[in-house]
Amino acid sequence: MMNFTLNLKKWLTPSKIAGLMIALFLAWFIITFLVYPNMSLLLKTFIKDGGFTLEPFEQMWNSNKALKSLFNSFLLAFSLMITVNIIGVLLVLVTEYFDVKGAKLLKIGYFSTLVCSGIILVTGYQYVYGPTGVITHLMQSIFPDLNPSWFTGYGAVLFVMTFAITSNHIIFLSTALKRIDYQTIEAARSMGASEFRIITKVLLPALKPSLVAITILNFYTGITALSSPLIQGGDDFQSINSIILVLSGSEYSRGVAAALSIILGLVTFVVLFFLMRKESSENYTAISKVSTPLQKRKIRNKIINAVVHVAAYLLFVIYVLPVVIIVVYSFTNSYSMDNGIQSLDLSNYLYVFSQPNGYKPYLVSLLYCLGASVLVVAFCLLVARILHKGKSRLGKKLLEFAMLIPWFLPHSLMALGLILTYNTPNLLLGNNVLVGSVWLMLIGYIVIQLPFSIRLIKAAFFGIDSSLEEAARNMGATKFYTFRRVILPIILPTALAVIALNFNGLLVNYDVSAFLYHPLFEPLSIIISSTKSVFTGSSEVDTRAVSMVYSVVIMIISSISLYFIYGKKR
Predict the structure, then answer these.
(1) Please, are residues 220 and 271 in contact by the beta-carbon 8 Å criterion?
(2) CB half-sphere exposure, 149, CA atoms < 13 A
């Protein structure tokens, strides 16, 4: 009996009790929010009246709208693999390889998608090319019979998304291009190779690893597109996600929505699995060491030089125009948006920053996005610490795979899983209902940011010199003290950067927000996508105009965040 008591006391140390509690918490979180909702969605889709059924897929097969959405999403995804690469490579060549006048100004315009993205950018393009857009008005003055809804359907969605998702080229391809040894280019030129041959036979092969990764990401973006098909797609070009959003609102059609989500999930899994395999198999060392820095080349042919300059500045206008329109429209009203600017004033800004109904959406998004960003980083610090110092290899692999689950599943499927699983009391939540509560969207935000956050924070942990921790342990410091005073200060810059990046991404998130937001607490992304005016008290509030103020504020916040993350390092 005494031996049992001694063994129990030895086992029930504070550190082991804390470890057990952490393990139980992680198991509960993973099961409750990452595994069970998705498994529950599968069971509710395939199990009916106690037996296996394929009825949802039969309903989907008999639904022309559902099948067309599948075709549309795949068409868009494959199209973006071509168009985004063409535009993205051209942007990189114009700003980093060719000697183009005003390259610094052009780069600022091309970088606009880093601060004006998501639903904001899609809405901005609508105000430029939509039925009441400035370009539409200009074209109607030349062609009076022009249909005001000309910018609708596949072409419009492809155009918007092509220019909206070139950020990966601007960031990653530009970096890869700068790593190419300029002596290789000079050697090809000395052998009589033309600039076109150098680009196709020297530059592009060296950039292949980055291009492959970006191309697959473009496919993933196209297959999971939501905001642009909803706004520019019209009745003829709706994507899988946009149809899922519509169908999930009805009890009768939720089975079809679940079936579509499952198909989308399978495609997403295959694409990301291929991407990770390709990422691990490609050899990146060929361009990792640079003997001679890349030098810009002047285009000798005057005609080609003129064509490149015209194309560069035309692209600049396409990128900058939505941003300019959003800023200008933030000082006007809906009537001016539809019929030409009549006057400019600060009334929208005064309303947003002085009236409770004006700054409420901003506070809602601020609390949700900042809260989710901080919580997900705190959670990932705990997980990354376990991955870094844990002893069980199998346990660490399972834990890391669980953190990457949201990467392999579309956001619509995970959101639908949360809705269908927790719309009734559930033991995992203490018999509480999650749907209809203010916590649903917060949990959704946390879940979708897990893969991105864990990869960066894990990398920061594994980059720490182990001798620092060993020195602290030799001096008698406890594990918690060592983490708090030695490890945390080292990884804090990375953690703060991840918080800022998550915050920026969530501010413009529409995919999860559209599924999970509380009707009384609409985030900015939902307000920005709204085209109606609402009444508050005795006066009408111009929601369309006010949403432009929200967009401008988000762009300013994003710019400041990106400056503190990247700007001071340069």
Answers:
(1) yes
(2) 9
**Bridge partners (DSSP) listed for residue 98:** 297
Rounded Cα distance, 386 and 307, in Å? 56
Show the domains of the chain with their CATH numbers: 64-329 (1.10.3720.10)
Helices 450-462 & 356-389, crossing angle to 10 degrees?
50
Half-sphere exposure of 81 (CA within 13 A, CB side): 14
Side chain identity, residue 565 = I
Torsional sign, CA 121, 125, 126, 127? positive
Q: Which residues of the chain have pLDDT under 70?
A: 1-15, 249-252, 254, 272, 275-294, 465-466, 468-470, 472, 474, 476-481, 530-541, 565-570
Residues 6+ apart with CB under 8 A from 469: 482, 486, 487
Q: How far is 443 from 512, CA to CA, in rounded Å?
A: 10
- The label of the residue with tokens 């376990």 reads 386
- Residue pLDDT, tens place only, 235-289: 889 888 888 877 776 666 767 877 887 888 788 777 767 766 665 555 444 444 4
Using CA atoms, how far apart are residues 317 and 328, in angstroms rounded to an integer?
Answer: 15
Q: Is 51 in a helix, a strand, or coil?
A: strand
Surface-to-core class of residue 286, CB atoms within 10 Å of its CB (0-12 exposed, 13-18 middle, 19+ buried): middle
Residues in a beta bridge with 51: 48
* CB-based contacts of 218, cutoff 8 Å, min separation 6: 77, 80, 81, 84, 85, 165, 168
Residue carrying structure tokens 């979180």: 29
- Supply φ then ψ for residue 102, to 5 degrees: 75, 30
Q: Are 195 and 99 in contact (CB under 8 A)?
A: no
Question: Would you list the DSSP string of 494-512?
Answer: HHHHHHHHHHHHHHT--HH
Q: What share of the chain is helix, strand, coil (3-state, %, to 5)?
A: 75, 5, 20
Measured between alpha carbons, how far is 424 from 307 in angstroms, rounded to an integer? 62
Q: State how far the Cα of 496 lies from the Cα of 512, in Å rounded to an integer.
A: 23
Closest CA relative to residue 331, chosen from 549, 540, 127:
549
Structure tokens at 189: 């030129």
Secondary structure in 3-state letters for 415-461: HHHHHHHCCCCEHHHCCECCCCCCHHHHHHHHHHCHHHHHHHHHHHH
Query: For residue 516, which phi and psi values (nearest 5 degrees)?
Result: -115, -5
154-192 per-position pLDDT tens digit: 999 999 999 998 887 877 777 777 777 777 777 777 777
Determine the Cα–Cα distance for residues 237 and 402; give it in Å rounded to an integer: 35
Do the beta carbons of residue 458 and residue 384 sit within 8 Å?
yes
Task: Report the SS3 class of residue 248.
Answer: coil
| Nearest Cα to Cα of residue 504 among 120, 32, 217, 10 | 120
DSSP H or E run through 540: strand 539-541
Backbone angles phi, psi at 463, to 5 degrees: -90, 0
Q: Is the dihedral of CA 546, 548, 551, 552 positive or negative?
A: negative
In angstroms, the CA 115 to CA 392 distance is: 42
